[in-house]
Amino acid sequence: MPALDGLWGYLLVALVFFLLGRATRDREPRPTRPEVPRPASTPEPAPDIAAGLEAELQALIADGNLIQAVKRYRDATGTDLKTAKDAVFARQEERRRRGPA
């Protein structure tokens, strides 16, 4: 079986090159990312949103459209994604605690 011998030869050469590469690579540790300061607590959602927006958000949350609720909250308040997501998820959690309406 000469074809099989050729295949094993190529695999052996590939293995040798792989092991040599692993043995001779740089051993210096990779640089780590600098620590990003995180806020001490999650910012509270804006309390002064219109009653119409609150009703719209509650309807979207009830239907399970959380992404649309986050988008609508961001459009209405101009907040960043994390703040809007936290606000919508807080409303969802509050709704879950209250039970079905």
Number of helices: 4
Q: Specify the overall morphology.
A: elongated
Query: Biggest β-sheet, characterized?
Result: none
- How many DSSP-defined strands? 0
Weakly predicted, low-confidence segments: none
Mean pLDDT: 81
Radius of gyration: 28 Å
- Separation of the first and last Cα atoms: 75 Å
- State the share of residues found in helices, binned by percent: 55-70%
Proportion of beta-strand residues: under 5%
Quaternary organization: single chain
Topology overview:
Blueprint: H1 2-24, H2 51-63, H3 66-77, H4 81-98
What would you note in describing this structure?
This protein has a domain at 51-98. The longest helix is centred in the N-terminal third of the chain and has 23 residues, at 2-24. It is 65% helix and 0% strand. Helix 3 (66-77) packs across helix 4. The model has no long low-confidence stretch (mean pLDDT 81). It has 101 residues and is an all-alpha fold. It is built from four helices and no strands.
Entry summary:
This protein has helices spanning 2-24, 51-63, 66-77, 81-98. By secondary structure, the chain is mainly alpha-helical.
Could you name the key traits of this structure?
elongated
